[in-house]
Amino acid sequence: MVSEIFNAVWLYLVVLVIILLVLAQCVVFMRKAWRRALGLGISEAQLKNTLVSGISISIMPTLPVLIVFLALGYSPTMAVFWSIIAIIVFSWLGDKEHRMTPKKIIAALSSGGTGAIEVAAACACSGIVIGVIVGIALIAMVALNIYMRVAFAPFFDRAESPFDIPGINTGFVPQDLDHVEADDSWLFSGYMADHSPSPIYRRATDGTITKFYVSLPDGSPYDGHGSAITTNEQYAYLACEEGYLVIPMDDLLFAEDGASVQATEKVDVDFSPAFMNIEQGQLLLGNFYYPNDYETPETHHITTPDGTENPAVMYAFAADPAEPGRFLTVPDNVFSIPGMVQGTCITDDGRIVLSASYGIAPSHLLAYNVNLAAPDGTFTTGSGDEVELFCLDSRNLTEDLVGPPMQEGIESHDGRVYTTDESASNKYIFGKLCGAGRVYAVQL
Question: Which stretches of 55-171 are DSSP H helices?
Answer without folding.
Answer: 60-71, 76-91, 102-151, 153-157
